Amino acid sequence: MAEMRTETMTVNMGPQHPSTHGVLRLILELDGETIKSARPTIGYLHTGIEKTAEQKKWQQVIPLVERMDYLGAQSNSLAYVLSVEKLLGLEMPERVQDIRVLLAELQRLASHLVWLGTHAMEIGAVSMLFYALRERELLMNINELVAGFRFFPSYFRVGGLRDDLPRGFHEAVTAFLDRFPAKLDEYEGLLTKNDMFRRRTEGVGVITQEDAFAWGLVGPVSRAAGSDYDVRKYFPYLTYANYDFEVSTAKEGDVFARYRTRIREMRESWKICSQAITRISPTGAWACDDTRVVPPPKDKVYTEMEALIQHFLIYSQGFTVPAGESYVPIEGPRGEHGVYIVSDGTNRPWRVKMRPPSFMAIQALPKIIEGGMIADVIAVIGSTDVVMGDCDR
């Protein structure tokens, strides 16, 4: 009896594949439809942002870091300014901290909405993308109202905010928060009990809590496997300790558990935003009173020579940061996003280095998808919510 001939086939998925959430290449070894091995290849979206930051003054780095995880722009800049402020020894007014909390949570909602729409679309629920982007547009409108820019606001600055909140801010945020819970119910009505969606996600791409820890996974991916690690709870920053919210978790560790975890996280972010908007007064302090980093008020610049000189020095030479190093983590949309900076005492950072959650998720992909089917790769990548700009940098 002749032996059955068996062999595997190596195929490329990417780097142009639309379901790889950026420019990611997966080299898959297939035995029929089953994945025997997978090797991620990254670097196609490399921008050199961390190295470029060393050539910029401290305040000029903010637009750069916002372009790494481009769906969590204000989370990136928040981690960066907190790290610089730690070296400077700056303490922000409580109003500034509450505004940062509110905008960071709105950014989390905007990021999760893009994830939800694209993830569902890739699995077959095409209409979900239109529903999710409908609400995200309202959040982009709020960014535009605050800073004049929709995608990369650069509103957080070392020392506080770029400017005070504009007129109509409270009304715009409140209008969004009033309508959002019903829209979340609408999303769940379309997906949570959808038989086709559940068949594509339940039991697919399972990772245990132990493996999640071993691979350095954080955020919803880790919490869907049973972890309760959330930087906002374990290492509270800003005024998060004053807010009432829960950490969303699940135990199954599959694609569906990661979906449920993020949906619950969106509801908790809505709770935080609802509390924050009531705490923030329409007017008040929008920066600290440290003249090293915060320019003088414009009325003084126009009437006082000392203020004019200080204004000129800050915008032309920047400011110096005491020599030292600091690392500040925050809970971004994809998990712990940390910024490590080193200062040599000049007006430019000596080193800026990020701890990106997307990079950890990419390196763990083979562990999650090997042994599964080709179609499951798309569901798994979508469930990890990787952003390749965050990975490559």
Topology of this protein?
Layout: E1 9-13, E2 25-31, E3 34-41, H1 49-52, H2 62-65, H3 73-88, H4 94-123, H5 127-147, E4 156-157, E5 160-161, H6 169-191, H7 195-201, H8 209-214, H9 219-223, H10 231-234, H11 255-279, H12 298-303, H13 305-316, E6 324-332, E7 335-343, E8 349-355, H14 357-363, H15 365-369, H16 374-384, H17 388-392
Antiparallel strand pairs: 1-2, 2-3, 4-5, 6-7, 7-8
Report on this model:
The protein has a domain at 47-288 and 326-355: Orthogonal Bundle (Cytochrome-c3 Hydrogenase, chain B), CATH 1.10.645.10. The N and C termini lie far apart (56 Å). The chain has 17 helices and eight strands. It is α+β, with helices and mostly antiparallel strands and 393 residues long. α3 packs antiparallel against α4 (94-123), α4 (94-123) packs antiparallel against α5 and α6 runs antiparallel to α11 (255-279). It is globular.
Q: Descriptors for this entry?
A:
alpha+beta, 17 helices, 3-stranded antiparallel sheet, 393 residues, single chain
